[in-house]
Amino acid sequence: MFVFLALPALLAIPVWGVAVVVKFVSVVLPGRRADWSLDLVRWCAAMAAAAAVGLYVLGLGAVQLSAHESESGASSSPAPSCRDADVDDSTLQHLVGHRASYVPLRFDCVLDDGTTYPSSSGYAWLNGLTAAFGVTAGVLVVPVGTSFVTRRVALRAAAPAAPPFSSGVTSELPGRHGK
After folding, report:
1. pTM of the predicted protein model
2. What is the DSSP string of the chain?
3. Which are the contacts of 54, defined by CB distance < 8 A and separation ≥ 6?
4. What is the mean pLDDT of residues 18-39?
């Protein structure tokens, strides 16, 4: 299932890159709005979150594809990802299985003594980049939330005080000021 999600994520990465470049060019050019900095922080937080989600979905697809290859078809055992890893032939002779993990992303090859080795170093990169983009999005959201609360407090303080609620009926009608 995740393999089908990985393809759109893979196709979205160039679109994401173009959007980032266009946004940064628009920041450099003159004629920005007065609140461009807050808008830029919001936009960067959203792009960092999108990158984290995209990379994680891409990694889910890679793990699922490796798991699928190792569980179906001819020549599926030991896992093709484990056979293709950069290990020597003596290690491959002790290969007995594999272990897939989705949090963190990894596909490990299990040896007969219980030790494991990663099928690819790419999962470490995906996990690191996903975490970095996720933390970046979280860090950027804090100033946006803080500025929102600060602006709301400032607007409330600047608003004129409302007259106290009066439950009695006034004797004067609007527009009639004495005779």
Report:
1. 0.68
2. -HHHHHHHHHHHHHHHHHHHHHHHHHHHSS---TTHHHHHHHHHHHHHHHHHHHHHHHHHHHHHHHHHHHHSSTT-SS-HHHHSSS--HHHHHTEEEEEEEETTEEEEEEETTS-EEES-THHHHHHHHHHHHHHHHHHHHHHHHHHHHHHHHHHHHHSPPPPPP--SPPSSPTT----
3. 9, 12, 13, 16
4. 77
129 Cβ contact list (under 8 Å, min separation 6): 51, 55
Residue type, 177: H
More confident residue, 34 or 65: 65
